[in-house]
Amino acid sequence: MFDTMTMVKSFGWLCGAFLAFLLIKWVAEETYHIGGSGHGDHHEQAYSIDTGADDSGAAVEEEVIDIAALMAEADVSKGEKGFSKCKACHKLEAGENGTGPSLFGVVGRPVDAIDGFNYSGALEEVASEWTVENLFHFLENPKKFAPGTAMAFAGLRKPGDRADLIAYLSTFSQ
């Protein structure tokens, strides 16, 4: 059934199809890379949308937050309501741990200070004590403040909410 002539014709069709694909590729490249000699050419963008932002590559300045002023205006009752997000993992009773350590007396307490709780060790690398400032930044984004922490909480984005929560936690002292 298969003779030499059939195989030569099949090979010829295969080579012809390959050449046709190369020709189509060459025409498409020339069409879409007008005036260019190849893949390495860099051209200015033909159209750009002005977003109003400065694209000079300057670093974005972070907003400076006056933590002391926020703490002076903090509302303990709002902090108590905000603590509802923490209740799933933390307890406020002295010596009682949940998934997370007890938060009784946390403000001013050394980091990793609860005996019998298995800490991840990431907090010790960034802070030695739970000051108001450390708590404020930790509560914004725990994973960013202490990379490698086991705490899965996403954080509180609003500075006022963080200040209210810290004020509430400050009422539980040792």
From TrEMBL:
<dbReference type="GO" id="GO:0009055">
    <property type="term" value="F:electron transfer activity"/>
</dbReference>
<keyword id="KW-1003">Cell membrane</keyword>
<dbReference type="GO" id="GO:0020037">
    <property type="term" value="F:heme binding"/>
</dbReference>
<dbReference type="InterPro" id="IPR009056">
    <property type="entry name" value="Cyt_c-like_dom"/>
</dbReference>
<dbReference type="InterPro" id="IPR036909">
    <property type="entry name" value="Cyt_c-like_dom_sf"/>
</dbReference>
<protein>
    <submittedName>
        <fullName>Cytochrome c family protein</fullName>
    </submittedName>
</protein>
<keyword id="KW-0408">Iron</keyword>
<keyword id="KW-0349">Heme</keyword>
<keyword id="KW-0479">Metal-binding</keyword>
<dbReference type="GO" id="GO:0046872">
    <property type="term" value="F:metal ion binding"/>
</dbReference>
<keyword id="KW-0249">Electron transport</keyword>
<dbReference type="Pfam" id="PF00034">
    <property type="entry name" value="Cytochrom_C"/>
</dbReference>
<keyword id="KW-0812">Transmembrane</keyword>
<keyword id="KW-1133">Transmembrane helix</keyword>
<keyword id="KW-0472">Membrane</keyword>
<feature type="domain" description="Cytochrome c">
    <location>
        <begin position="74"/>
        <end position="173"/>
    </location>
</feature>
<dbReference type="InterPro" id="IPR002327">
    <property type="entry name" value="Cyt_c_1A/1B"/>
</dbReference>
<keyword id="KW-0813">Transport</keyword>
<dbReference type="GO" id="GO:0005886">
    <property type="term" value="C:plasma membrane"/>
</dbReference>
